[in-house]
Amino acid sequence: MPAKPEPDNSHRHIADSETSSHSFLQYLRETLRPYVGLTSFTEGARHEMVQDDVQDAVHPVPAHSRDELLGAYLEATSGLLELFSTDELADMYRSNVYAHDPPGWGLDGDLIPATDVALAIGAQLREPFTCRAHSTYYFRNGREAAFKTMLGRQNLSMVRLFTLLAFYMIGACQRDTASMYLGVAAKAACVLSLHRASTYSNSSESESSSNRARIWNSLRNVDVLSSFIFGKPKSLPAIRQSSSQTHLSFEYLGNDNLTPFNSIVKGCSLLEEIVDELSSGKILHVPTAESLLEKLQSWSQSLPTSLRKVSFTGDANVSRNALRSITSPTGKDAISQGDLSARQKLAGALHVSCIYYFAVILISRPFLIAYLLSRLRGRAPDQLIPNPDEASDMAIKNSTISKMAQLCVSAAMRTAATCAAAHRHGYSFGNLCLLKAWVFGAGLVLGFSKFAGEPRKDIDEAFEQVNTVLESIATQSPQAGLYRETLEAFRESIAKWHDRVETEIKRTVQHYMDDILVIHGSAQNQTTIGPNFPSGAFYTTDTPQSYTDDHPPGLDAVGVDNAAPWLEGWAGGTPQSSTQVLRHLGFGDVISDYESYDDPFFNFEPFEKLFYSVE
Predict the structure, then answer these.
(1) Closest CA to 564 of 337, 355, 379, 348
(2) Which of 147, 265, 434, 516 is the most exposed place for a label (fewest CB within 10 A)?
């Protein structure tokens, strides 16, 4: 494994107080600690973050390179933000003279700081994290203009500028700061009544309904999607008092480039609906989950072909070439406009796909956790099989819980496979700030499935794909490198647990049986019989009888009588409540708020909040 480059002095590591206290990662650490003890995974900091400090100013890059940075901005925000009109983008590309004087730029005064931050986001996508000179230069200029006018001028340009500042800060791993910028943008949007659909018919020509809706929905996309990563409530108010949805329905006619944006706007509406439903006590409610999944499937099937099938052949060294073109006076290694367009389309399609798979994980992950925890406690009679309909055990075959659990694993595998396919075809991700968090969240799901389930080659391969993608992103994002280190620590905990189980099985077997024949031979003549499982992969679902003092308490073997609640079919069909699901999985009589349930191996309080976290 190549060594991760050390960050320079312009970056500082901090203990992260910015992630949700109920994050999925922290939950896994607390859950696995009784099984594997103290490891680098269970005892690691919640997240170690790397913040990019503003570096010394450098001279602005040549005009042709600024065009490339604008192209990189459109790639980084593809499908997520539509903050500039077609005319504004044309003006930004036509501008060849850099000066903070509107006549020199030939731009509207309010467009100059927004262009600066857009260039900063583009540079952030491409520059190695050890050299942020260009991105921080442009960001500083835009931020300075933002704070000069933030209180005196509440207009669409202010909302746009602070949305851009927030997006940049997400990429820089400064989540609290990003949340503050989002709060300013949200408050300004409310002052302008952007959340009231009735005001759109009275908008002036300079603030057309289309521009207002684009800026509102852009802010709302970032607000909704980042809330799952921050683990914090949204900044925007609800449009309707009866719902927390913030989506303003508006058709952007005559612009095919807005297809990913329109799709993500609708996808975020579904995410808000999912949060509404699950937060009302239905986190393990099968009928609710099935209803939400049907709505997601209806949305995915309505996606245009351009988002479902993308042809791309890229240059694996595009990030290196793009950086060289920034500093080269001739622009010899500049990326062609055709390549930039293809990258923007692929980035938009990746964002749409990851949002879909994340939504599926959001709905089904509680079922996977409940299922795998019951398995760790010795109550699940079979592995998490690829197709529950093929199971010989009728309880598994008819179990909706098993199918929901498998759905979560499959969504994580699809996330990994989709991003790995893009990487395999030459797409270098750069610092795609939201995608890296979605990929990491998928890796945590796959890792927990590896920990508590039987060996499965497809899960192992998907886990490796996640690591490969994060390694690719780590060149531009130190946070992606830390994500990868966390998954490597998770891998070590998985191996430790599997070794412990294997040792106990061997100890139990050797107590009753001896090995009486060992056959030696030439290695070149050896053949493999049966599936190619990794070493130490064979162990049963029953927990061994014998334990040593260093084993965690409470892992006693579960006999047939104790396993009976799991083996029984659902009484009266599909379970109708979270309590029924947990009782059926063997967690006893659990009341709806779980306050009276005492089990050191199952922490119910954060379990109720798990759905509101990517990582």
Answers:
(1) 379
(2) 516
